[in-house]
Amino acid sequence: HYKHIFCLNSLCGRKMKLFLSSLAVLATVASSSWKVEAFAVGSTTSSPLARHHDVPRPAFVSSVQQKRSSGTVIYMGWGPDPIWSKCAVTSNAPACPSSSCVCISVKMPADVAAEYKVAGQYVQVRPEGDDDAKPIFLAIASPPTASADEAAGPSSTTFEFLIKKTENNDWITNIPPSTCVDVSQVLGNGFPTAENMEGFKYDFPTQNVLFFATGSGIAPIRAAIESGQMGVNPPGQGGRTARLYYGVSTPEDMPYADKFAQWELAGFEIVPVVSRPEETGAEWFGRTGYVQNALEEDGVAVPRNSAALLCGVKGMTESVKDLLSNAGVFEGRIMTNF
């Protein structure tokens, strides 16, 4: 066989190499038991909404799936096609003094709410019954409440979402309570914290957790902080240490500021960073500039024992990833939710 392959390769050159490589890839997939749920393929929108926590709109969501008898499913795109449920909006309120973001609560079917188990997972949302509407992708801001006992069901069936207002999403940011929308099943794997922060995957245990967010990217970070899954305890009670770097334009654009004291009591140090302090209505005495600048100034005390969760604008996440990697944080412990 090797002789035949060598001869064919010599005759056909590069094309045959590519053909053989393709066969090798197909053989690997066919013989594996892996389950690949989604491949990010980019965005077709330049909406400001997509530059924050809302998952970028995919170039396509393919219905083409390859199934094997073992149950392996390969999705080409951003996961399976949505399965829509009619859900009622229960509240819609400004999330910050500037009203640049809103906090929306939606009552979910119990079976859908039970699918939400890891901070960072998301859903698709569209106007009720509008098959032609392009859905928006929203990270769930409320913490997962699914019980380990599946029969018991989730302790809450209400999902909260933090949505930045844009020119083309007023249908959802101005939606009145009691209005119904279509919401998909829970999608994505969320932040892979169980895989990368627990157990013995790395030689050094995770003792410090860093969180980085900008704007409405705080939504899945809030879910992680309030999930009870981070191994962080109130001061003096052991557990991991934790610090959140949170960047906004002005203090008036800062959702969840009313939760900071509660998070501090739970063991999370909060470092707000304001990029345009001159535009604030009152004098700002906190950190200024950008999240990545604050990290660069502070450094990472024990990189090998640290993990990080990131969500926000591309410039921030790329800069923070570089800083953490250069400091010595394991690549797998620098986590995003998609």
Structure in words:
The chain has 338 residues and is α/β, with parallel strands linked by helices. The chain is built from 9 helices and 14 strands. The chain has helices spanning 2-12, 14-31, 110-113, 170-173, 193-197, 218-225, 260-265, 291-298, 314-327; strands at 65-67, 73-75, 85-94, 101-107, 122-127, 136-139, 158-164, 180-183, 208-214, 241-248, 268-274, 287-288, 306-311, 334-335. The strands form 3 sheets. Strands 6-5-8-3-4-7 form a 6-stranded antiparallel sheet. Helix 1 (2-12) packs across helix 2 and helix 8 (291-298) runs parallel beside helix 9 (314-327). The protein is globular, with a radius of gyration of 22 Å. The two termini are 42 Å apart. Residues 1-76 have low confidence and may be disordered.
